[in-house]
Amino acid sequence: QVQLVESGGGLVQAGGSLRLSCAASGRTFGSETMGWFRQAPGKEREFVIAISRSDGSIVVADSVKARFTISRDNAKNTVYLQMNSLKPEDTAVYYCAATPRIYYRANDYSRDGMDYWGKGTLVTVSS
Fold this sequence. Notes:
This protein is mainly beta.
């Protein structure tokens, strides 16, 4: 089992930045890939970005490319989501997710394809 705890959400103005953290505990094998999904009100949960432990490969959704980055501290089993140039449409609950699998394309990431989830943290971007 893997437990995921997110932190860092909040309210930010459009154009601003925010950093989210996700700490994993439990079996490290289960958190080979860690990443973020988000769910806006009335919308499906969508993939945002992810990073693998073993080879450091990063997959990013087109909607956030050049604005969001992800990094990972393997010693702490923690991932960080740096969000820059935030837009009102980035407003959502952001969920940390983990899986023992590695995916190399954004289209491969799905809600069903992740094994562990955090409770989510709300990010609100005001215009």
